[in-house]
Amino acid sequence: MLEIDSLEYNTARSKMLIPEYGRNVQKMVDHAVSLEDREKRNKVAQAIIKVMGELKPELRDVEEYKPKLWTHLFIMSDFELDVDSPYPMPNREVLAEKPNKVAYPQTRIKIGHYGKNVEILIAKAVEMEDEEERQALVKTIACMMKQFYLTFNSTSIEDDMIIDHLAKLSEGKIQLTDVSFLPSTGSILKANGLTKNSNSSNKNSNNKNRNNKNRNKNNRKRY
User: Fold this and answer.
1) pLDDT tens, residue by residue, 126-173
2) Residues with Cβ < 8 Å from 192, sequence gap 6 or more?
3) Are 165 and 111 within 8 A, CB to CB?
4) Number of DSSP helices (H) and strands (E) in the chain, helices first
5) What is the pLDDT of residue 200?
6) From residue 221, how far is each of 111, 213, 214, 215 by CA, in Å?
7) Are residues 117 and 190 located together in one domain of the fold?
8) Residue 157 main-chain phi, psi, to 5 deg
9) In this structure, is residue 105 part of a structural domain?
10) HSE of 76 in the Cβ direction (CA atoms, 13 Å)?
11) Residue 222 pLDDT more than 70?
């Protein structure tokens, strides 16, 4: 029976700088650092890189696969491993730097279900000088708006609403009068896997089930 004092707990072990590779790889790295002979260190480092690649096969799909493994090796050695690496040793300070914050768009979307891209397209259409190209783009935008509206509001929409919304989003600079080119509501709903009567069918089904329950209750009371 093992004595309690002989048990080794993770809390008492040295910290693993990249835990994903496991304790055994970290021990191999520590052993490589302790070797005095440079040739032996190089051979052990190459063996460790091979093991790391087998443990992390998903890294093979990452660009610069081998440089990443060598970077991890140097990090796990706390930048103390002196070997002939095919790639330059990474700079500790550079790796420790925090990435710059990604700028996040702060502009408010005027009508949510159309999205920002539709607003960008409308602004582009307003600036176009060629009338024929402008009208073609406006028609494309109007069709997109109807499709987007029905995607988020799977009931119905009047084409006049597309006219109003397009005028609002363009600040009155685009005024549609003929919307006969718009696809029908039914065709859009069908393409989205919906039907115009889907909601009403659900309501009728719910009402039918409710009536059946009430009828069964009345029958039980009667008997």
Assistant:
1) 999 999 999 999 999 999 999 988 887 766 788 899 999 999 999 999
2) 150, 151, 154
3) yes
4) 9, 0
5) 46
6) 54, 13, 11, 10
7) yes
8) -150, 140
9) no
10) 27
11) no
First to last CA, the chain: 75
Residue span of the structural domain in which 29 resides: 12-94
CB distance 182 to 158 below 8 Å:
no
Task: List the one residue out of 123, 118, 156 whose CA is nearest residue 140.
Answer: 118
Q: Which one, of 192, 135, 150, lies nearest residue 162 by Cα? A: 150
Q: What pLDDT score was predicted for residue 182? A: 92
Q: Where are the beta strands (DSSP E) in the chain?
A: none
Pair (192, 117) in one structural domain: yes
Cα dihedral 64, 65, 66, 70 sign: positive
Q: 67-109: per-residue pLDDT in tens?
A: 999 999 999 999 999 999 999 888 888 888 888 887 776 778 8
**Domain end among 35, 67, 94:** 94
Looking at the fold, whether 78 and 148 belong to one and the same domain comes out as: no
Q: Which amino acid is at 60?
A: R
Q: Is there a single domain that holds both residue 52 and residue 83? A: yes
Overall pTM surpassing 0.70 (yes/no): no
Confidence of residue 56 (pLDDT cuts 50, 70, 90): confident
Number of structural domains found in the chain: 2
CA dist 169 to 14, 113, 120, 150, 178, Å? 61, 13, 10, 18, 18
Percentage of the chain with pLDDT > 70?
A: 79
CA-to-CA dists, residue 59 to 18, 37, 189, angstroms: 15, 30, 43
Rg (CA), the chain: 33
